[in-house]
Amino acid sequence: KQAGEEKGIKIEQSEIDEQLEQAKAMFEDEEKWKEALEQSGMTEEDYIEEVIRTNLLQQKLQDALASEEGNGASDDELLAYLQDSTALLDGAKRSSHILFNAEDRETAEQVLARIKSGELDFAEAAKQYSADSGSAADGGDVGWDVTSSFVTGYQSALTGLAKDQVSDLVESDYGIHIIKCTDVYNVPEGGINDLGQVPEEIVETVRTNMAASTGSTSFYSWYSEYRDAAELDIN
After folding, report:
1. What crossing angle do the helices spanning 200-228 and 75-84 adopt, rounded to 10°?
2. Burial of 136: CB neighbours in 10 Å, binned 0-12, 13-18, 19+
3. Sequence-distant (≥ 6) Cβ neighbours of residue 95 within 8 angstroms
4. Which tens digits make up the pLDDT trace of 147-179?
5. What is d(CA 62, CA 3) in angstroms, rounded to the nearest whole number?
6. Are the C-beta atoms of residues 144 and 94 closer than 8 Å to each other?
7. What are the pLDDT digits (tens) for 27-86?
8. CB–CB of 56/47 below 8 Å?
9. Do the Cβ atoms of 75 and 210 come closer than 8 Å?
10. Side-chain half-sphere of 84: how many Cα atoms within 13 Å?
């Protein structure tokens, strides 16, 4: 709290409300939520102060420290990491999908037939029919498989697709997918010698992950020193 005050960090009520709703959403109903709190020996007010507010404060302190120190991987560090990851990157695939609820198989079959006949554009079909609202606005794009974690059925189907090829119906725990492989990345014969040789989305994901790792280490090191140097009044 002291560090937060020194850095002018404020936690908005809307942020607390959002975190509280996410926590409650993990339980079947309000009664189950209250039972979990009682088992932990906490009230909802305790949870807000001891868990939510503390976690938000820590994250904001970490972000503030990263901003002050400019934490993040240099281009040379990024390039070295990508050079060590050529086996993982070679053959990486980018894909889009259209998701239907499990009970909408008939609609999924009709849409698939229209796409494969050329009557319906895949991206437009995703915007119109996909139950995945997050990707639908982007024509169904869900990024590269090396930067995302897809369920087994989806990944297996994507692995068998060539660029611009569309799958048959694929079932998963999320529903029914129609998948399109939109791009394939192959590492150049001479290896990766420049960041420009790697898709920008992959580079930025690696940059973000490296910055998060470095920032976390830097934060705990800073906090340990800050705590040890703190002046304490013991009553």
Report:
1. 120
2. buried
3. 141, 142, 143, 145, 158, 161, 179, 180, 181, 182
4. 888 889 999 999 999 999 999 999 998 899 999
5. 11
6. yes
7. 878 898 999 999 999 999 999 999 999 999 988 888 787 767 655 667 888 899 899 999
8. no
9. no
10. 7
